[in-house]
Records
---
Amino acid sequence: MTWNRKQIAARVAQDIPDGAYVNLGIGIPTMVADHVPAGRELVLHTENGMLGMGRAAAADEVDVDLINAGKVYVVEEPGASYFHHADSFALIRGGHLSYCVMGAYQVGQNGDLANWRTDDDDVIPGVGGAMDLAVGARHVFVAMDLFSRSGVCKIVPTCTYPLTAPGCVERVYTDWGVFRPLGDHVEIVELADGVDAAELRARGGGVFG
Amino acid sequence: MTWNRKQIAARVAQDIPDGAYVNLGIGIPTMVADHVPAGRELVLHTENGMLGMGRAAAADEVDVDLINAGKVYVVEEPGASYFHHADSFALIRGGHLSYCVMGAYQVGQNGDLANWRTDDDDVIPGVGGAMDLAVGARHVFVAMDLFSRSGVCKIVPTCTYPLTAPGCVERVYTDWGVFRPLGDHVEIVELADGVDAAELRARGGGVFG
Amino acid sequence: MDKVMASAAAAVADVGSGSTVMVSGFGPPGQPEALVTALLESGATDLTIINNNAGAGGVAISALFAAKRVRKVVCSFPKAIESTIFDDLYRAGELELELVPQGTLAERIRAGSAGIPAFYTPTGYGTQLAEGKETMVIDGRPCVLERALRADVALIRAHRADPSGNLVYRKTARNFGPIMAGAATTTVAEVGGIVALGALDPEHVVTPGALVHRIVVGADTGPTTGAV
Amino acid sequence: MDKVMASAAAAVADVGSGSTVMVSGFGPPGQPEALVTALLESGATDLTIINNNAGAGGVAISALFAAKRVRKVVCSFPKAIESTIFDDLYRAGELELELVPQGTLAERIRAGSAGIPAFYTPTGYGTQLAEGKETMVIDGRPCVLERALRADVALIRAHRADPSGNLVYRKTARNFGPIMAGAATTTVAEVGGIVALGALDPEHVVTPGALVHRIVVGADTGPTTGAV
């Protein structure tokens, strides 16, 4: 049985220590906040100028001036702070965020990250803060489904999509398990219960050894 | 009769328009604030992180956390603001101060400014914010005595002391009058009443034409 | 010193066709709606817009795109879920796009206001977005040289102003306002309200008045927390 | 998350000899007196100090110089009217001096915290202080390439902290604190008092807690204005 999205998010949360400053991307990464183990405290950063971001706002809590980078209304945690966009990215680029968790189109076995555009020229490109986070956060985690909808493995020998940043990905959390890019291959850190390692290797184009 | 220090300061103040953001150096420049013509408002900047700086504090107004760049206790004007040192120099370097007024050891006829060290190697050098102000303020005025204590003219064909910045000085306000460096010579904008232009030219080493 | 103007129209009347215009905002928070609406109504065209989202989240800025007043956009994320205006113009070749990583965009704007003409950053190195840019390895890390961004006018949104232009912001509506202030020849601030000179605590001022040239009152978005 | 430490001695105990130490302050305001005193008492020596005034205005930092614990100083203005300690050591060849224009010093420190490894500035071009540095003419203006400054530890002074390290400052004591925060491997803040988590208005926090690793309570210098 592969992991569902909640299980992937929970597995990421296990690996983020107490007291970490964390930026969570859209999708599975956002769900990490809901699966932090008891007794552990993470401080969430959002690119648009806030530390101490809380959960999504309920209807009666919405403040039109308080959104996260995914444009969702959120609430403040005690100890929150606001700052402008250059200071927000100074936190990112300066190495002051311990972890960021992002989605990806492709991850190379050498840790290359491709998550801002594919080879589909019909899609308008947009990069947002992905490149800054990829080079700036001290630990870059990717959370995604291992295979694309058409069944192609997204951990690849060499990224064919345009790079977000070279060699930045430390771990990849997927429905099939947890992986670590090591350069010439990808280490299998952990597999979801009942997942077939032989099938994984067969579908992985050689990256899993 | 040459002008005294107050008269020099008053003459500078005449040339700074209403609403200007101004940084005043130590000495005669500081006195400019006391001679602003009626109906004119200047907003004073101090390098150590404040706009809207007021006058020197009376004994019973001293706040140990409120000093100016000359380390004198000062007071706040209504509309003041505090900011950190990088933001303070962003105001300077970014051209957001309309005027700065500084002292000088030498001013070249080409507008070169030398005001941070002489050729006396026994003096410990210190530059402070002089270089930043010289390149950053939109208008750089110098206020000084025209002649050194030993009688040497401080407006010179070529600065012999180490430069603060090349070609930055717009006007020089002195006890003898007001001057404008034009490159190959210095224009006499105005002379103090009764000052002898011939004597000035004779003592000026050719810079006044 | 009173920088408050009678109307948004008056505040942008001298923004000519061909101008480069910074517009604050990230999503709806921080969009200077009244100023951008006035810019649209002024008829100015052939504009270059510097804005993180190329109009996503701002009603007025989307209208500016729809009216074909924009020649070029400098932004990090032009995609808007709720609108295809940008996409259609871009595909039709009617819009030039300079795509910049968001942190590099913010730092380039900050550099424009701070008088830093260029800086090196590791962001973007080895990617399409750094193609053709100068690079340098600094302390073992490859970096890209990025230039300061400046504009003819910056249209920003703040929460409160005093008449001298001191500004405070509200929550995540702060975003690009404080760094666009001063990064243009003229900075115009749209605010939710004006307070008396001296009413803002000098410790809490985010943008000092020296960076703001004109003030216009727009819609108010919510209450002030703490002291004004 | 509670970053408050029991004593200044504990907060600087791991600052070894040979360390590079940033110290905030411009004149007396903003000097972290308790932390620098603890550093002196720790016996650490062969230090490089990054501080605007090379000790002028700070009793503790002057004592550090007098005790010959400092090998090198990076500063803009080493002259102190009230003291000849620096002068004597410098003339005796016992101190190395790197003189930096004050705005360049501040921007290099800010760059160190912001992950900008180098930047160009017009400041200093054509002067002794730019000799040997790379230059580039940008938009017709000659500029000097300046590198980010980082340290092993930053000792800064603020007015109030919450336990997570959010800081507010007081008047011109703010100076170098907010930019030194994060420009070192470890940032230690000395404050006049601790307030509860949530007591600082998120709009008024100047230094977010992510930049501060340790907090120590020192002397209080005056009351808080406005909301805490």
---
Amino acid sequence: MTDPTTERSPKARFDSLSGSVDERLYSQMTLIRQFEERLLQLFEGGELFGTTHCCIGQEADAVGILNHLDERDIVFSNHRCHGHFLVYGDRPELLMAEMMGKAGGLVGGRGGSQHICYHGFHSNGVQGGIVPNAVGMAMAEKLKGTGGMAVVFLGDGTLGQGVVYEALNLASLWSAPVLFVIEDNQWAQSTPVEKELAGDMVARGRAFGIRSGEITSTDASEIYAHFADIVASVRETGRPRFEVVHTYRLCHHSKSDDKRPREQVEARRVGDPVPLLARRLDPSVVARLDAEAGRRVTEAEEHARSLPFPDPSTLEDSLVSAR
Amino acid sequence: MTDPTTERSPKARFDSLSGSVDERLYSQMTLIRQFEERLLQLFEGGELFGTTHCCIGQEADAVGILNHLDERDIVFSNHRCHGHFLVYGDRPELLMAEMMGKAGGLVGGRGGSQHICYHGFHSNGVQGGIVPNAVGMAMAEKLKGTGGMAVVFLGDGTLGQGVVYEALNLASLWSAPVLFVIEDNQWAQSTPVEKELAGDMVARGRAFGIRSGEITSTDASEIYAHFADIVASVRETGRPRFEVVHTYRLCHHSKSDDKRPREQVEARRVGDPVPLLARRLDPSVVARLDAEAGRRVTEAEEHARSLPFPDPSTLEDSLVSAR
Amino acid sequence: MSRLDESERELNVLGSLNGALHSILGDDDRVVVLGEDLLDPYGGAFKVTRGLSDAYPDRVLTTPISEAGFTGVAVGMAMRGLRPVVEIMFGDFLMLAADQLLNHASKYTWMYEGKVDVPLVVRTPMGGRRGYGPTHSQSIEKHFIGMPGLVVVAPSVFHDPGALLRTAVVDDDRPVLFVENKLMYARPLRRIQGGRVGDMAARVDDARYPTVTLSYDDFRDADVTLVAYGGMAELAARAAERLLLDDEVVCEIVLPSSLNPLDLTPVRQSLARSGRLVVCEEAAPIASWGSEMIARVSAEAFDLLEAAPVKVAARNLPIANTRDLERAILPQESDIVAAVTRAIGSHTTPVHLAG
Amino acid sequence: MSRLDESERELNVLGSLNGALHSILGDDDRVVVLGEDLLDPYGGAFKVTRGLSDAYPDRVLTTPISEAGFTGVAVGMAMRGLRPVVEIMFGDFLMLAADQLLNHASKYTWMYEGKVDVPLVVRTPMGGRRGYGPTHSQSIEKHFIGMPGLVVVAPSVFHDPGALLRTAVVDDDRPVLFVENKLMYARPLRRIQGGRVGDMAARVDDARYPTVTLSYDDFRDADVTLVAYGGMAELAARAAERLLLDDEVVCEIVLPSSLNPLDLTPVRQSLARSGRLVVCEEAAPIASWGSEMIARVSAEAFDLLEAAPVKVAARNLPIANTRDLERAILPQESDIVAAVTRAIGSHTTPVHLAG
Ligand SMILES: Cc1ncc(C[n+]2csc(CCOP(=O)(O)OP(=O)(O)O)c2C)c(N)n1
Ligand SMILES: Cc1ncc(C[n+]2csc(CCOP(=O)(O)OP(=O)(O)O)c2C)c(N)n1
Ligand SMILES: [Mg+2]
Ligand SMILES: [Mg+2]
């Protein structure tokens, strides 16, 4: 099911796909979109338990950024990690199994939606604390001389957390090869950005001596092009970068809790990255990629369904790692 | 011993002193200097226990800033608080008693050097955590409509702490009337500023939408003039301000732990704020003010000596306030 | 969005807390409420603060994601005469504000020799059983018990949660950590009326944060004293009922609402009848509140103990997301039954010993 | 500035720890050391890291004042194959890094089903008796005991502190909080040789973090089992000596170095001889490590207890700066003597009961 040469390298995998860049980006975005829509259906049908955070509307970030990473690199993501994981790992069946809480899920059902790990990919559910972790991982690669770098995702709201600034300071002082990606979707849960963030996002990165920039886009190709240089420069300079992507979340925060002004959300649908890219492609290609992604999601669901729930007798396993 | 009209108002007290501004500033600085030199002697003589942090070289900040505050206002200081307290409270005997651990000290010997309280003045010994406290106090005054504001002191090193940025964000979002004073003495304990701080101090305040500035000076008059408008603007606009004072610590960090390059310290002695101001004054005035301050320090010491140590049977007192 | 309607308020824990916050804000303009996502129409992640910002827009402050920062701001507010109520969205995030509680809020009054109060309340939902996974399901109040100066309170359905919250906010000048089990929000209150609740006799002591004691035998006799708090109270009551019906084992249930300071009197009174102690909590088992309870009883009421005290707690693991594992990790009614059975030893049928 | 000289290293706890760090850094290039003010010539606030940065400049990182941040960085380093050692300058500041320990370091291995290790060591000096006041004198390790996945280790002068540190850094793949009592740094090691230390017979078990047991009666008989750790070990030993000389009371002293997980075996073995338990710790008394110890013994070795267990701890207050108050707040040798006297009840002269 996995190709050893591309299993850990999003870049190698992306390069190995056929079709134009737009087509390849689209194929990943439609997979993410359909995967998450399926998740929401499963929740509605009572087949999933707990909660989840979808990235509907923000898929362009994941595909635009992570396809530049290779097998040496590290990703630390947050609660909204499905898109990031699907680009990094391309294993919808493992994520689906995790979401269903099955043995054979990414972490055997222990983590669920926001606590996953797969090779160099990690996520955790406490806002902010992953940021120094990512800096440390980047520092480790640097000290080991592997040439690896780290990407850490955080939302606009998470810029409220103090530990983020401690991490920026440390990354800058110590020259950690880490890319801080701020996915500014204008909201933190139910809170609009103007109620949670004073001043300017990019200025916050700059104030710590980190080269910082921003892009306002939901166009996956644009984001992909924008980040090519940024990722390369982190790797080349061994210095951190701080990059804000202004985007929008078209779905609720978690399962079903959207109280944002309806008009605002509707007005942002024009920026929906999936149709935005689709419009540039041959409709038959879109149909094929949609169908292929749909098939993969269905296969993932079937695979996940076929797995057993974990046995409580395994609870004491993995108190230390298997390494 | 205290004048009720000036007891809580540094400004009223300062205005009530006789002499030129320079003379009055000098009288306070020589008191601080002599007080701390006496403390260090007492430590050397084994009469003081524990540790303490002197502000020798930085006295101009305390006198330049706090003389603008009145009885409505709040000060939150840190470990290096003697100068701040002596300007705010003008009660060397209470501080000396506290340093000696006596009943009748500022907080009955419970706090010692870095945990004191006197009317609107407070200090605590954990770096950074006092900053949101000061923001909250300022917010309380604002909600109560008293017209009071808060000043909080932090060092360059304390800009490493994340909670500082959480507090900046909150103060800016909520328009708290608080003045953040960064006393940049170029060192945090044994660490030079370039090893603890990346980027730019003033930019850090600005990144949070706070009007921010800086002054490089150990001239008390200059600092006093500089802060007149700043304090006034916090009060008038009800908005926070962030102001960096670039200065230098001429003494060790705490009692006796200075490993800084000797040449660097010696080179900075030209900026010593006490002789700097003295040179502008009539030598006979300087002599008088020095003598007066020396007398007050001696009285403070004698007073403190005369007090008993607190009785352990009082330990369970003040588990709730006396209010 | 206005407050929950009257009937809802009457019926469940969420309503009780929400109603209390409405009336406290109405009665006392020193009260301010701070936390993430509090504003209406959203009204807070668990809706305890629903309707507050519509009714009191100036005193309900929605915060950025900065638990240390806004708790620290609330500490400062409390020092200057306000009575802030902080919500930490999930109890799991409380460690972010822990230094504010340990080295600021709980220190100032004593350290400053009584020159300031810190009448702060930090409320937070704790607990699992909702499939939220390892960082959104914990009961970490145990780590906050034993900080000198910090009061820790936890209501159960047998207490009046709103009344406890009012006491903490309005009548207590000390900082209080107020722990709300999140599964309990939707649970109906079990009101004590005429000294009874359901089939049980009930006593409530007159402490500021009262302890409720429940008995199936009118406080005449008991085989075991079951001590629990918060969300475990109902599990303990259900276990007690099952033990009575299935095994004729009589439990007394002691439900403190003040986890710290802890008044041992009601436990001691019950132990005088039962001689056997079972302590129930949802937290991971080491150095927990239950440990403190057992240690206190052993040290101060050793002579009342006829058998080894037994603790029911979670397994010593993080809390898994998936249902079966979460269930196996967190203590269940059947674990309480098994523990009671163990405590009374030979009194029971062997089948339970295997449970 | 090079490492402490050989003799110093031989003699005291500081030297033992410093020597261990030197040799660990020398042996294993995965080891990195992070913390505030570590660089030579300063070499750290308590000098445990003296000479390290001169010898290993690339692997000794002095940090800004950002406890959560650099602990979090170390967590990330540990996840990628390094073996970081973090110094928190004063244990009092550990709460700032608590979320990193609770929700990050201690969760990842289990939560990720064993896909990563977090071989992190966080070392920190705890404790008072130096007149440093309320925020620089605490023993707050109790708040970190009971986080599933986090090991808590504390050496005493009767252990080999450097060896314990080496084990934690090199041989333990779990995150370890390593607690160093700051008054202990200057204390000479009490080496166990030929099964004896001073006038006492000594046993050391073969656990990864060993428990030392000391006896004045060659493990034949004992009146009381005194359990202590860290800086309290010496106080316990001194109290035991005084009790022997003044009152002919024979104590066995059990000194675990692993506070969590806790192996009860050595305590149980001693209790089988003594039947009486006194637990000593410097921390504030509620929900402390001593509570856990008493709870564990009560629950698991109830039949061995002939009398109520007794705890010696600080008073339930912040720690005052001034000497007399600090002394009255923190537990003293005389408190241990009084507690032992209480534990053995009528065996002693009434004068001690008043103490
Ligand atoms: C420390 C912490 N506080 C609060 C939360 C609850 N929470 C989860 S997501 C979220 C909003 C995050 O907003 P943002 O960073 O903008 O990311 P987005 O959800 O918009 O992707 C909040 C408050 C949390 N997980 N961790
Ligand atoms: C949270 C915390 N970490 C570390 C310390 C120890 N410490 C006390 S003062 C100090 C240096 C502070 O530097 P700076 O903020 O520049 O103030 P300065 O001492 O130079 O006035 C340190 C590290 C502390 N008190 N609190
Ligand atoms: Mg957002
Ligand atoms: Mg400084």
